[in-house]
Batch of 4 targets.
Target 1
Amino acid sequence: MGDQVNELLSAFSKLSPLLAEITEISGYLWEKGWAERNAGNLSIEVTDLFTERELVVGGGVRVATEYTYPDLAGRSFLVTGTGRRYRDLAKNAAAHTGVLRMDADGCGYELLGAGSGDPAFRPTSEFPAHLRIHEFLRQSRARQTVVLHTHPTELIVLTHLPRYRNGDAINRALWSIHPEVKVTLPRGLGLAPYTVPGTEALAERTVEVFRQGFSVALWQWHGCVAIGETVGEAFDLIDTLNKAARLILLCRSAGHKPTGLNETQLAELVQTFHLPE
Ligand code: 13P
Ligand code: ZN
């Protein structure tokens, strides 16, 4: 038994670099004001970090999921707990995250360990959306393993303005305000209409956005979800978009309706940086 515990502990130490990155980015999310109270959550597929033997020693709590995810059978995830605060993750990410493994038929998971040692630890209430996105990433053999959700202030404000309720209009505005937005996000973001948080309906609307080829989904009146190969990459996408949203709102509050880059100037960026059309 002692050997098994040691094995589990050493397996979990493989998470240290990821936890260090979560700690750093959580601090930024808090400082930016995108993480009031328990706002936001993240998950990372960590299957490849562990050997089969390391995972079977877990023996933790089994929980059934409401829906089934056959393509995620046996896959493992590091996930933030529901009710946890990014400002606390910034101090000790391990204490507010858990590792779970989807069971062999993909209709539940086993909690292998939660850093807090809290038996009441449960994954984020947005776990349905995270699971659907990971399912899509796996089905499409995507390189991204990170799903990051936060409440970026200025992007949320844009979703309240009727003029930006259309995907083309909001992307055009975001690209036009600063050239690096088009370079960083040549496809822009995808809009998901308001849906009750934590629901399967929200999960489906979100995955639909990623299926269309976007890397960021903007939930109307709520926040953003981004995918990335690292937590930093997912953060950078939202940070770039939110900077653009802030520039738009600052121009408008200065009484100026910004026109910014025109179609020719955007096309020039596509050509210069070899961006997808
Ligand atoms: P959790 O605390 O359950 O992760 O919920 C936060 C959130 O932002 C819901 O959308
Ligand atoms: Zn949220």
Target 2
Amino acid sequence: MIPKSINIAPSVRNALKDKKPVVALESTVLTHGLPYPENFSIFQTLENLLISQKVTPATIIVLDGIAYIGLEENMQMKLKQMLKNKENFSKLGMRDLPLAIAKEISGGTTVSATMLLAHLAGIKVFATGGIGGVHRNWESSLDISSDLIALSRIPVIVISAGCKAILDIPATLEVLETLAIPILGWKTNSFPLFYTSKSVYPIEKIDNLDIFVSFWKNHLALKGKGILIANPIPEEYSLPLDKLDSIINESIEQAQIKGIKGKELTPFLLDFLAQATKGESIKANLALLKNNVQLAAELAKALINKGS
Ligand code: PSU
Ligand code: MN
């Protein structure tokens, strides 16, 4: 049963009822990832991209204690005002949802919380920028994103540009393997590192929709839960890793000096990168988000057309 505090937009409800494709979108990227007005404009761009592909968008966000799955026009305007006024948004992972609802606060949903709410509504496909993972220095901090746990528990297809090199990539890939979460590289056999299209880490490649749909059916039949589709940033926007490396190291050093940890760490590192690359990282971020949404639309349509 869906609690009253979860509000599914009529457009999303109807699309699901009529077996039309729906793609979920997260909101931490809006509340914590990008500044105003870029955040609201990327929200509109991504929603419009889906609509132009005849796919219903379902941006997921918590506003005043109500978890919205899809925003109607009036709520979009409310969100715009809130972002413009820089109102206080919490960063909500899946464990934070019950308290956010109880306290009637507002917050952006991370990958884990978005997966959970999407699944409750019956949405199978979710596009994001990058997932959280195992942070560097995990040996002492044990900082491992609950996104990985969510992927192991919730049967939703997550399309991302891999994850950021701010993380410990080999450790993140190990945990994904331990939790038996499949990673499928879309037309690539190397794990993409968000701003950078290629890496030295091999993954399984798929390059057509028939294989994808067949894979998903098999995965569910074999009691699998979440999967990660790794979709590299388009080559023309890809930033070379050696250029980012020193900035990333500096950002992690600064976080340590300032004592920034826990849920504040990822937003801090991303903000540092944006400033240090003079906005180049933001441009790349927007490009890969659009690219992921585009692929998510194709996958969502393929699941419907090929009867899954
Ligand atoms: N990684 C990014 N951009 C992001 C995030 C992660 O490159 O915006 C956000 C996502 O919402 C992700 C969350 O689910 O941060 C993970 O945070 P944490 O590491 O605190 O679990
Ligand atoms: Mn964390």
Target 3
Amino acid sequence: MTAQPVIRGQGPGVVTRFAPSPTGRLHLGHAFSAIRAHDWARGRGGSFLLRIEDIDGTRSRREHVEAILADLAWLGLSWDSEVVFQSARLDRYAAALDQLKAMGLVYPCFCTRADIAAASLTAPHGAEAVYPGTCRGIDTTGRIHEPHCWRLDAGAAAAVAGPLNWWDETAGTVAADAASHGDVVLARKDAPASYHLAVTVDDAAQGVSDVIRGVDLFAATHVHRLLQALLGLPTPRYRHHPLLTGADGERLAKRHGAPTLAAMRLAGEDGRALADALRQGRLPTGFMASAH
Ligand code: GLU
């Protein structure tokens, strides 16, 4: 596979991105996030980039990608540079994993899919169960051809990296605490990358200066900060924002029947008017912004 060139924003310094996974239709919460990232860059003469996080080949769909592009245009958002697809950058993630292998900071894990699913360790969102380290230090002789993922030896990695900080708009300077997240998956059984590895490599490759995303990914930033240090990558500023929820406080991503942007678009609603309402904090009836 040919390596893609480094893609940097055109503006003087500020580069933001919207990085949806094309595993479903976008909802109002995605619009809220994309508008914030877009406006932060546009208001500062910077660049707004679009990255499609489609490493999960089994759940990603081309039709969702098409809907995402149409939804963003409907909201009146434009992006700079070509759209980046993570599925075209697997060689980059494999190279980063090799770097960590050479440092002795990752190990193969043979735990079953059911174990991993139970611990929900590959999902970017939500409370992550901590992997108990079952496969850390086991003898893998003769087993390496069995299906396995690769995990970060977080304790060893944190010791190598030493104390680390990152900055968040709301929380201020945060001491990175990646070890408490346990040995996260960096390469899956079915893909040479996990969310954590791909997002870290790509934010650096795209020159992202300000990561603007939901507060549900705040905890993941501890892991990303550690990976940045290990891989010698720069650390962006982080601006984690509140999530939109239904009136019952439940996150839109978890709700059944939350209206999708595509449905509103196809029903003839005015996307630019919706975007302006969201900018002004006027949420449609039945929605709230929650800081948790
Ligand atoms: N792809 C992730 C998602 O759709 C977002 C990743 C990020 O913004 O860091 O939730």
Target 4
Amino acid sequence: MASALDPCSFSSSAKCATKHLNLGYHVDFGRRVLTAKAELTVEVLQDRFSSLTLDTRDLKISSVTANGQEAKFAMGAKHSFMGTPLEITLPFELSRGQQVIVEVGYETAPAASALQWLTPEQTAGKEHPYLFSQCQANHCRSMVPCQDSPSVKHTYYAQVSVPKELVAVMSAMRDGQEPDPQDSSRVVYRFRQPVPMPSYLIAIVVGALESRVIGPRSRVWSEKELVDKAAFEFSETETMLKTAEDLAGPYVWGQYDILVLPPSFPYGGMENPCLTFATPTLLAGDRSLSNVIAHEISHSWTGNLVTNKTWEHFWLNEGHTVYLERMIGRSMESEQFRQFKAMGGWKELQESINTFGSNNPLTNLVPSLHEVDPDDAFSSVPYEKGFALLYHLEELMGGPEVFMGFVKSYIQLFAYSSVTTEEWKSYLFTYFKDKVDILNKVDWNAWMHTPGMPPVKPQYDTTMADTCIALCQRWTKAEEKDLGGFLESDVKTLSSHQLIEFLSLLLQEEPLPLSHVERMQEAYDLNAFMNSEIRYRWLRLCVRCKLESAVPAALKMATEQGRMKFTRPLFREVYGFTKYREEALLMFQDHRAAMHPVTASLVAKDLKVDASQTTTF
Ligand code: BES
Ligand code: ZN
């Protein structure tokens, strides 16, 4: 049974709490396994304590000791997405306040859901293999037996042995390296994370990595082929960090590096402490997608310092982070730019709610996740309904400066802990004690516990969106005879942000006639745009409008990179074009074995591919 406190974890955080983890990894590319030792320092929270449960998933456990003494252990029944509980019985009894060191010897599975093992052909350099992890939301248990709940925070150290031509990095401070005493062909890298953090922020990459300094506390890391491009793209990092510190308080994590992963990385960015992970699809060449970095930087406060207690409160992480991300945009660009981005966010929210269905309980700001896989629940809802709520409160409470006062104070109060929506709300009422009458008029139940769009639609300034809206309307209203009137000059003066907005608006409308998208290509040459956000929307639009020649390009983009935000809708769009449904399915079968495990399983669900009919390795 899931723990009473966290529906996504078997380990009961009421009985005991992990304080520190010491991790030893031997990275075996030949067998695609990590041979490992995890030493957990566990604090006991109740008397007569003699057993504990850890989360695992597809781990092969070889030994368990408690304070060096052999301990009995048994694996429970395997759950579809929560994995297998590891029940440990201590050879002694402890009382409240005592600590015990539990050491687990184990090996990961080649199909571990947190890990993707890449062949040299799947890397930019084509010469060396590559390994990366992605633990959020509940995949850490497939690489560490642990209390895999964001309600538990601990520090960690790690020692990682890798072939000496490769480099290991983790979500921690780098702490030196030395030849592996056991094997002269290998090197051991050491790491130290002195700030307590939840298990989902443990992260590792091993590959032929290089780095460049981009600021006083920042480097970019990637294979050498991309490192200069990445250094250019992310050169605003230090300015963003300083802006974020002005808004939210001191940055406590020491280093802030960015690692650009191979194209199959499933997210745009991941806020791993000391080392943000980023998709190479951010490398637009003009820094126009750097808001993702502002977003991941913001998580250093909202998410990594103040953490959602369970995934049901995920909006506390993402809603506040989008709010901070847009505040950074406001400082570095303008208020109008923030308003423009907020409006785009509202549209993303509408799209998510359309996809899930407006009665779907997963579109609640605070959904119930009992027997729900957090990967299935993932959508823009916690991001954009969360942002919309915070923006609505900002307006009610007296504007951005006043509301940032609350956000900063919330961060300082709850730093180093994990919080629920109720705790957040109760502090909101305490902070704004003079405005409680206004807060009481908010329809909290509609915002938090009701599916569909929010009860209030914020009025955003449309200055930057007006040209996009007008151009979208010209296209939707145009008849065949008007098509000659569209010219390259329509889009020449649009920024890439505005071009993205224009295409997003069109995607919300009824599909355009085929003749229109053909003319759009002729006039604007959108096929030539390599900015991933533009290309993704353009290809979706073409497929939606049944432009057959766009199908191969859409499937190519869906498989050449694996960011789920692009890959899933592109596959779904081609699947929805009945004539090419089979094509989409074949393309997926062809690529499945080489795809990231989480992406592969979600695309399989999207395309209604019966999991039992396909082999996973
Ligand atoms: N923490 C998320 C990514 C994530 C969420 C991974 C849930 C696994 C489970 C990250 O901070 C994020 O939100 N990334 C966005 C960035 C965007 C909102 C600017 C992305 O990947 O696109
Ligand atoms: Zn985020």
